[in-house]
Write a structure and sequence with these properties.
This protein has 309 residues and is α/β, with parallel strands linked by helices. The chain folds into three domains: 142 residues, P-loop containing nucleotide triphosphate hydrolases (Rossmann fold, 3-Layer(aba) Sandwich), CATH 3.40.50; 33 residues, no CATH class; 91 residues. It is built from 14 helices and nine strands. Strands 2-5-8-1-9 form a five-stranded parallel sheet. A two-stranded antiparallel sheet has the order 3-4. Helix 10 packs across helix 11 and helix 10 packs across helix 12. The two termini are 38 Å apart.
Length: 309
């Protein structure tokens, strides 16, 4: 039974959950509901949360599940329109001008019309996201928007509300089929309300232990059951500490993969100390766990898992 309607979208929330699960992405009902509504209503979806909780991955999986192109705009400080939207091929334009002058062309208006045409337009991610491929609108991922400045946010308002871009030399370019837009933020700064109002919103939190265990079983099938339970229980306890940066789901997967590659069947203090670099990314956090707190957490984990046997 197909999960998709004739329009190529999930037919229900349950169908969406199943479709994502078929591609090894597990999400709770609240997340599935807001994503389903974003698809049905044709609205951008703004996902906020800590790094590594699966915000970027949802766009990748959605594109694969719906068989649509994925266009990613990776945001960073200083990102401008020429890098994100479009720019003109200036060397080719200058060559065209010189050739026209050599041929004796004197009609400046015609020359300007020729050099500011689609032929010389270099399309960056935003402009490419407004173009359909074989009638299929892409999934447009605007990743880590909080890394840009407010001026770029303001530019995106037209894109997110009307799915169009205004190019002074050409006019307005509007999407024939609006893209599916996923905007992510790690909340390193607050994103302006004007942008959020154009989107549906969802806070992506760390998964509960049962869900994270299921993720490990799917993503690291070579990790034995006992080790998987220990890894998830250990990471869940780490997140209750006042660490500089809590490990995300991506780090849990990395750690389980590393332990599997080392042929470990269970956690022990030495193995934890040797492999913390796959789980924690700041030396102060690693030093704190290696100083003795890691042993206490492991002892608690072993006792709890033994108690539920």
């Amino acid at each position: 039974m197909s999960h998709l309607t004739d329009q190529g979208l999930p037919s229900s929330i349950d169908a969406l959950v199943s479709l994502l699960a078929d591609h090894d992405y597990l999400c709770g009902r609240p997340m599935a509901t807001v994503l389903f509504l974003a698809l049905k209503m044709g609205r951008p979806l703004f996902l906020e949360g800590e790094a590594g909780v699966g915000k970027t991955e949802i766009a990748k999986v959605l594109a694969k599940a719906l068989d649509r192109p994925l266009i990613r705009l990776q945001c960073y400080e200083g990102l401008d329109i020429s890098s994100a939207v479009y720019e003109w091929n200036y060397p080719a334009q200058m060559l065209e001008i010189r050739l026209a002058e050599a041929a004796g062309v004197t009609d400046r208006e015609r020359m300007e019309h020729d050099i500011f045409s689609q032929r010389y337009l270099i399309r960056r991610p935003v402009l490419r996201a407004l173009e359909s491929v074989d009638g299929r609108a892409p999934v447009f991922l605007i990743d880590e928007l909080d890394r840009t400045d407010e001026a770029f946010e303001a530019f995106l308002l037209e894109v997110l509300s009307d799915f169009q871009v205004t190019i002074p030399e050409l006019g307005t370019v509007k999407a024939e089929h609006p893209p599916i837009v996923i905007v992510t933020s790690n909340r390193t700064r607050e994103v302006h309300d004007a942008l959020k109002r154009r989107c549906l919103y969802h806070w992506v939190d760390y998964p509960q232990a049962a869900q994270e265990l299921d993720i490990i079983r799917r993503k690291v099938p070579g990790c034995n059951a006992a080790l998987s339970r220990q890894v998830v229980a250990y990471v869940q306890k780490l997140r209750t500490l006042d660490l500089f940066k809590n490990p995300g789901v991506a780090e849990t997967i990395d750690w389980a993969t590393a332990l599997t590659e080392l042929d470990r069947l269970a956690l022990d203090p030495e193995t934890i100390s040797d492999t913390l670099g796959t789980l924690l990314k700041y030396q102060d956090d690693i030093a704190r766990i290696q100083s003795g707190e890691g042993r206490r957490i492991l002892s608690d984990v072993q006792a709890e898992l033994e108690a539920v046997r």
